[in-house]
Structure formats: C-alpha cells, structure tokens
Design goal:
Largest sheet: none
Number of strands: 0
Radius of gyration: 16 Å
Number of helices: 6
Strand content: under 5%
C-alpha cells in the first residue's frame, strides 16, 4: 500500500501547473510553492510543506470553513473567514517579500 501512495505522489509532481510568472519573468509569484506544498502535505512532510508555502496552514481551514458555511450554519463563520483571510494574505505577502529579498 505504501508503494502505491509513493507512486501517486511521484506521478502528482508530473502534472503540476507551471508558473507563467516564473517562466516569463524568471521571478516567483505570490502563489509559487502552493502546489508543491500541497504535495508535501499529502505525503506527510508537514514541516517541509510549511517551509515551501507558509500560508498552507491558514488556507486549508479557510477553504474548509468557506465550504462548510455554505452547507451548515457555523456561529462565528464570518469572523473566522475574516481572520483566516487576513492571516493568509499576510503570510502570502510576507513570504513573497522575503523570497524577493533573498533571491
């Protein structure tokens, strides 16, 4: 079973979308690393997923709450969505600026 999972993740890397910003301008965009971070997260490498794209741990609950709030009533969903959105944008922009300055 573990071999099948490993093969799935290896195949997943072959189908990742290219970053046009990186191809055209040789510069990372604010979304660069998200797909690789998800692949690392699915393979169980949580620290590497965070290092690749720190906002992954705020985006997952954000999208989960967005979907659940359309189906179920969640008492504080508006506040949760607002704070997770702010945290996600802050992490994305901070990571983008740090990558710009270090590369």
């Amino acid at each position: 079973m573990a071999n099948h999972i490993t093969l799935f993740f290896l195949a997943l890397k072959d189908y990742m979308l290219p970053c046009f910003s990186k191809q055209l301008f040789d510069m990372d965009c604010p979304g660069c690393g998200l797909q690789r971070s998800i692949a690392l997260l699915l393979s169980g490498d949580f620290l590497a997923a965070f290092k690749m794209y720190p906002a992954i741990y705020t985006l997952i609950p954000l999208f989960g709450i967005l979907v659940l709030s359309k189906v179920l009533y969640i008492k504080f969903s508006d506040k949760l969505i607002m704070w997770l959105s702010i945290a996600s944008v802050t992490l994305i922009l901070t990571n983008f600026i740090i990558n710009l300055l270090t590369h």
